Amino acid sequence: MVGEEGAFVLGWDEVLTEEELSVTLKVLCMSEEEFKEYKEQDGWEDDSEEEENSTLSNEALSRLKTPCKKLLYDSVLLTLESYGTDLKAEQDLLNNKEAYEKLSRREQQALHVRYGQKRILHQLLELVK
């Protein structure tokens, strides 16, 4: 369901791998009975037109059902815990010109990437609180 890389891709305004995330949330939030019925339908593609045409924009994420929001929230917290530093540490390093300039070009680029990833994850936390 998650694809080859085992991760979902989030952007500033929407989920870029929305189909994978939608199906994953739908399945993980089902009861055991609902899951059995869903599997028996041989209908992994048999979603309603409304679901097929919906996008997982930030606004749509904030309107998810509570179990899905909790699942996303907890997943984001686990992802943030996997980083060696928090968002504030990254921000402090970016704001400290002397320390920033001591980093190699590659380390500077990695810092910007991590900082951007963490900002998106924190935004998602706010959306699904």
UniProtKB/TrEMBL annotation:
GO MF annotations, alphabetized: methyltransferase activity
Matches recorded under Gene3D superfamilies: Rubisco LSMT, substrate-binding domain
Coiled-coil intervals, chain numbering: none
UniProt KW keywords: Methyltransferase, Nucleus, S-adenosyl-L-methionine, Transferase
Subcellular location: Nucleus
Composition-biased stretches (Acidic residues): 43-53
Superkingdom per UniProt: Eukaryota
Region (Disordered): 38-59
Pfam families, A to Z: Rubis-subs-bind (PF09273)
Signal peptide: none
GO terms under cellular component: nucleus
A GO biological-process term: methylation
InterPro entries: Rubisco_LSMT_subst-bd (IPR015353), Rubisco_LSMT_subst-bd_sf (IPR036464)
Principal subcellular localisation of the protein: nucleus
The UniProt record lists the keyword NAD: no
Residue intervals of the Rubisco LSMT substrate-binding domain: 4-121
Full protein name: N-lysine methyltransferase SETD6
Organism: Chaetorhynchus papuensis
